[in-house]
Design goal:
This protein has about 375 residues and is an alpha/beta fold. It is built from 16 helices and 10 strands. It has a single domain, classed as TIM Barrel. The protein binds zinc ion (ZN).
């Protein structure tokens, strides 16, 4: 059984534009997991959004090189199967400079990324870096990306309710999902985003999680109309489907009008649920999010979601769905860019050296030895 057979989904290949690898397996095991996922979910292509840092102290200096290693190995087996969006690394000290960020995105370009991932606009990381989304320190970097025409997936803000400190549940507070006055406001982050788009109008930016805008249909239309190179991805934030349910007809029209500018994505991780494909669907996040997106796009009758209650599906036309699932990604990305093995070997050697001498220390969901082992595997592969 595949995911499609189990749920009666439409039979078309998908491109998942939004996966991650920071969930505590080796890079080699991540390849095995992603192969299982590609087969089970009928994924023709996947795009790994590398993360070298996150709020909450997560640090992975090897995030990019591991992702490029996975891409290169997967594409040796299936051409154009795997793409990587690279992420800049923050030192959180004087080493963070405009020229430093520019050097990093240039190096990533030369190593063979297919675009860039930013999480610098998520409230906690925005606070950690101290830089506005449109801070001039990023200008040289964005100018380079704009010139090269590579796309960006940008995570901006979080659902608006995360700023509602008075009404937040104790669980939300404990998990760090609530932003008090020490964080930038939701509206401030939106304003900084517009600042960025005004400076770099040709930047191809996809806002992750539908830009957390599903309660603001008119504002979503204004963004799309004002900034023609902007697009949204469908990666849950499942609250977006609650928003769509509140104005079903209005959102269906939105999806039809902007069908070329919406991408399928899921935040699928390298969680290890063994080698039985169906266990990925039954084990929580991976299955839940993928199915939630597909139910919402394909089903015709309201359905119950375990987290979000009754969802009224958009039930889009086959034609529009095909664009979101597949064509928009292929049209934007074309073939996966070539990985420069020589440069990647050099980068892997630098990170290995820094790990071994304690100059850089990863803080991920893996033990240090596993991170060291993954970067070592990447080095040995690229240096061959
Ligand atoms: Zn994500």
């Amino acid at each position: 059984m595949t995911n499609r057979e189990k749920n009666g989904f439409s039979n078309q290949p998908l491109c998942d534009s939004h996966l991650h690898i920071e969930k505590g397996t080796s890079a080699d095991r991540a390849i095995e997991i992603f192969n299982i996922i590609c087969d089970y979910y009928n994924y023709e292509r996947i795009c790994i959004c590398a993360l070298t840092g996150l709020g909450g102290g997560f640090k992975d200096p090897g995030g990019n090189i591991k992702a490029l290693y996975i891409k290169s190995k997967m594409n040796e087996a299936r051409r154009n199967n795997c793409y990587v969006f690279g992420h800049i690394y923050h030192h959180h000290d004087g080493k963070d400079t405009a020229d430093g960020y520019l050097r990093q995105v240039k190096k990533l370009y030369e190593m063979g990324v297919d675009g860039y991932k930013f999480i610098e606009g998520k409230p906690d990381y925005r606070k950690d870096t101290g830089f506005a989304i449109d801070d001039p320190i990023y200008d040289k970097m964005y100018a380079f990306i704009e010139e090269k025409g590579l796309p960006i997936t940008h995570h901006i803000a979080d659902p608006r309710k995360c700023w509602d400190v008075k009404n937040a549940s104790p669980i939300a507070i404990a998990r760090g999902w609530v932003y008090d006055e020490s964080f930038q406001t939701f509206d401030r982050l939106r304003a900084e985003t517009e600042g960025l788009l005004k400076k770099f109008p040709k930047l191809k930016v996809t806002f992750a999680h539908f830009f957390f805008i599903s309660d603001e249909l008119e504002e979503a239309r204004r963004f799309m109309d004002t900034y023609p190179n902007v697009s949204f991805d469908m990666t849950p934030g499942g609250e977006m489907f609650v928003g769509f349910s509140k104005d079903h007809d209005g959102w269906v029209k939105f999806f039809n009008d902007y069908s070329d500018r919406i991408y399928y994505g899921t935040d699928t991780y390298n969680f290890d649920y063994g080698n039985n494909p169906e266990s990925y669907e039954d084990s929580g996040d991976a299955g839940h999010r993928n199915n939630l997106v597909r139910f919402a796009l394909e089903r015709t009758e309201p359905f119950e979601d375990i987290h979000y209650g009754t969802i009224i599906p958009l039930s889009l036309s086959e034609d529009v769905r095909k664009k979101i699932y597949h064509d928009n990604f292929v049209n934007r990305q074309g073939d996966a860019r070539e990985v420069n093995k020589e440069l990647c070997a050099l980068e892997a050697a630098n990170i290995l050296d820094a790990y071994e001498h304690g100059l850089l220390t990863p803080h991920t969901h893996s033990e240090f030895d596993e991170e060291l082992g993954s970067v070592k595997a990447a080095y040995e592969y690229f240096a061959k």
